[in-house]
Amino acid sequence: MKSISLYQDKNTPVHKLDPLSKILYIVVANLIPVLLGNRIATMAFILISIVILTIGRVLKRTAPMLGFSGLVLITVVIIQGIFRQGNATPVLTLGSVVFYKEGLLFALNITLNVINILMSFSILVLTTKPSDMVETFVRLGLSPKIGYVMSSVFQIIPQMTETMATITDAQRSRGMETEGKLITRLKAFFPLISPVVMNSLITTRERAIALEVRGFDSTQKKSFLSELKKTRSDQIFKAALILVFILSLVGRVLMWLK
Amino acid sequence: MAKIVVEHLKYRYPLTEELVLKDISFTIEPGEFIGIIGENNAGKSTLCQALVGIIPNFYKGAYGGKILIDEIEVAKQNVSDICRKVGIVFQNPFNQVTGSKLTVYEEIGFGLENMGLPRNEMIERIDYSLRLLDIYKYKDRNPFDLSGGQMQRMAIASIIAMRPEVIILDEPTSQLDPQGSDEVFRAVQSLSHEGITIIMVEHKMEKIAAYSDRIMLLQDGQIAAFDTPQKIFSMDDLDRYGVNAPAFTRICKSLNIKDEKTGCYPVTLKEAEDALSLSGKGGLRV
Residue B28 falls within a domain, yes or no? Predict the structure, then answer.
């Protein structure tokens, strides 16, 4: 079955980490550069993220995300480099277009921050099974209903796409034109709507009943089939993160005092 | 003491004029295997849903009379609480997949998680029901990647794992091949021997005749007859109810061979064989 989640099923130490450790990493990786307010911290975390992604063998998967945000970042560089308020020191002149140092440095900050955020989130998204992530939240007290919505989306949306494909095929087999010019394809879209919507409504009701007869709405406190995995590497990873965070906090305070 | 008591049950779906269930009353003893037959629109599925409380909790409409299971009134309970006592498997296995679990194993665990069972008991029950329905080999597959028949067995397994005292099956073998439906019937029968009350809607008459203790014949929202398979299929006006007797019964009917003890036509291969050899008609071996 097609999946809409970005999760890559591999067996690496990164995949085995507790989702909470990865979330903690996101928080720390993005807070410390803010605390310290320098580029080197951001670059250091980008580097760490790259190392973690390489261990998890998912580094390649970040390319499409970086490519997409790269487009946006290029416009940031151009606009800030040329027009930022306070631009004073020209560094590069292309014809009549002048790039200024201040603007370019500012754009560099933004770019590094965006890449840092992207990289740290990709660790979580690419190496954590969505259902595991949801389960972690439910264990922490998220309502199971919201948890269900979050985890079922990953399966039910592809199911709906499949239903849609089936209905299209059924209509095509009865002679409807569904391919060709844009206008033909647009026309073919309308007869799809009502069966797809009706089908989803009926399916949803039946599924709601099926959940109900399996005690979904029960007031009983839920238990979990999968075991809580508290590994040593998780504890070390988390402890290291917290330690680094405290150190940078201390560093920040010392900088103030000076 | 009766397991299920239904008294003057009446029901009309919202926005409709006619009653779907018209004054139905019956009692079912613990451990019985009950078959429900009848033509389309006779109210079979509606009755099943009423027994679990989906009617009137999910479908509104007009409801009258009462259903007592172990002297608890179903209509006044939450479906989520009743489901510990009464499990139901629906016709369409596809819509019974929760969609939040990635493997068959976890899918069956869904109900057990909701019941708050400890982990080792869950594992024991999941393994048991996977083996009972012979789908243990698919335990790591995605539930949506199963075929219709496998999905149907998974749906049954996930209810069995919850160990209700009554299991209602609404055409549980509609997507199964003859061998698969045989396996399901045998699995259900073994549950029945364990003392679980079974109520099953089914169109495969040979099967339902062979396995049920009693058969409820529904027509137009009313109980036309509720008796042993032999008596039901020996009725002369069976055609009027849109029901075909099992092949064995039809053969014996046209040969006019009756079981001497009960005075009814035989309903299973075994009974037909015995009756034929006793009657001495040709002494044919079936």
Answer: no
